[in-house]
Amino acid sequence: MGNVKNNLADKLRVYAVTERKITGDGSFRDLISAAEAAARGGATMIQLREKNADTEELTMHAQALVNVLRKYGVPVIVDDNPQAAIDAGAAGVHIGQNDMDPSDARAAIGPDKILGVTAHSAKEAEAAEKAGADYIGAGAVFHTSSKADAMPLSREELKLICSAVHIPVVAIGGVNQENIGQLAGTGIAGAAAISAIFGRENTTDAAARMADAVHRALGSDKFKAAIFDYDGTVLDSMPMWESVPSRFAEILGHEAEPGLDERVKYMTLEESAAKFREYGAKGTDSEIVDQIMDMVWYSYKNELEIKPGIIDVFEEFRSRGIKMAVATQTPSRMIRSANKRLGIDKYFDGIFSCDDWATTKHFPDIYYIAAASLGAAPCETLVFEDMIYAGETAENAGFTVVGIYDESSAKDRAAIESYSRIYLDSYHDWPGIDNIKREDV
User: Fold this and answer.
1) Residue 122 half-sphere exposure toward CB, CA atoms < 13 A
2) What are the residue boundaries of the structural domains of the chain, listed by start?
3) Separation CA 167–CA 9 (nearest Å)
4) What gap in Å lies between CA 54 and CA 203, rounded to an integer?
5) Which of 61-70, 232-241, 373-382 has the lowest mean pLDDT?
6) By three-state DSSP, how is residue 130 classified?
7) 430-434 average pLDDT score
8) Arch. (CATH architecture) of 225-236+304-435
């Protein structure tokens, strides 16, 4: 928990507050699913807000939320109930002015957990800080349906609150993607939102757009993370993949017929297994596929090499504190084998395979998951891709794409260049991170 406190201001950037009655069918199941979707999109902290739940019920659901969000590195805050926060292993508790004395809340949760306190004035904020608050929730900054009787806090008072305390301040109440820009320059660390995230049709997309809007409002133009595709982007492996059928035929003791590699590319699993039986393959369809994958794995463990110049990019990112991950369609065990042999495993904070997450790069989920694990919103994250459809998916999801040349996708170069921030024929052409700026900041 100490680590969360050390970068608390970052965790408050996109603070999603749950509201079960506007989420899915109103069940806790849908609420937890929506909270995970928000984390994928860039929510950096999530508060479980259940005004009518007793301590036992709140603890149970807070624990479920903690378990789901742990893999994203997203802390869970429990509203109003210190005991439930303790019992559930949540990161902390948030209390309002009329809930309990902040000093009592601090005594209840101890020194290590996070304490957030709502304040409507600089005087209340100062008192909360003295009582042990770690952050202030200032608001309501706009009219909000969740507290219809709350008078909106003026911009001037919000600035006074931010300047009156030494702890981070998050704006609460009625904040959305459209009005957050009005709070630029007030000194807030982030914004809390309910309906702007959980009241939208696509929660992940809503969280990503909220994250982008918050970061633009707060004036940050720095990248915090980089996600690398693997085959054709990190590893010069596409020639190996494109020759898998003919190489497998040779292992089976036969010379491959002309055009085999191209034909197998468009075959179904059953069709390709049947084809290889003509070359002497034995076993079920899945067993034949396993034999092929063992052959491929051998190449990752023993043969394939990285793209020239990429180590310099890795070193620059590591020296600048930019976290890195792999997002790939290749099985993660193969990535780990190659990374260890090549000595590049030290650069990556995570490996995310579409196989492990039951998805493909036709959908942005794998990028959202990787970015969330690195503690970065899509708008703060570079994605390095060599394939047209994958890079387009990332760009449409709010990531900044760096297109990478690979011979296998050379025919798509113009299209890849059209949506990429920059396009590299080689990593030797990398201009340095300071020359890659986010747009619309």
Assistant:
1) 13
2) 2-217, 225-236+304-435, 238-302
3) 8
4) 27
5) 373-382
6) helix
7) 95
8) 3-Layer(aba) Sandwich (3.40)
CB-based burial label for 278 (10 Å; 0-12, 13-18, 19+):
exposed
Report the 10 Å Cβ neighbour count for 26. Answer: 12
Smallest CA-to-CA distance from 136 within 117, 122, 153 is with: 117
113 and 91 Cβ atoms separated by less than 8 Å: yes
DSSP state, 52? T
pLDDT 10s digits, 51-90: 889 999 999 999 999 999 998 889 999 999 999 999 999 9
Residue range 307-335: mean pLDDT, rounded: 96
Q: What angle do CA 37, 41, 43 make, to 5 degrees?
A: 90
3-state secondary structure of 73: coil
DSSP letter, residue 237: -
Task: Give how far Cα 218 sits from Cα of 213, 300, 350, Å.
Answer: 9, 43, 28
* Contact between 270 and 307 (Cβ < 8 Å): no
Closest CA to 109 of 145, 138, 140, 77: 77
Torsion of CA 338, 342, 345, 351, to 10 degrees: -30
Q: How far is CA 407 from CA 116, 242, 309, 404, in A?
A: 53, 11, 17, 10
Three-state DSSP at 383 gives: strand
CA atoms within 13 A on the CB side of 48: 34
Share of the chain above pLDDT 90, in %: 74
Give the class (CATH, top level) of 2-217. alpha beta
Greater confidence (4 vs 145) lies with: 4
Q: How far apart are CA 76 and CA 153, in angstroms?
A: 26
**Pairwise CA distance, residues 139 & 124, whole Å:** 12
Q: Are 204 and 72 in contact (CB under 8 A)?
A: no
Answer yes or no: are the C-beta atoms of 63 and 96 closer than 8 Å.
Answer: no
Nearest alpha-carbon partner for 73 in 370, 356, 351, 328: 370
Judge whether 94 and 124 are in contact, CB under 8 Å.
no
Show Cβ contacts of residue 328 under 8 Å, excluding neighbours closer than 6 positions: 229, 230, 231, 335, 351, 352, 353, 354
Q: How far apart are CA 233 and CA 220, in angstroms?
A: 28
Q: For residue 301, how many other CB atoms are within 10 A of its CB? A: 15
Q: Rounded mean pLDDT of 37-62?
A: 93
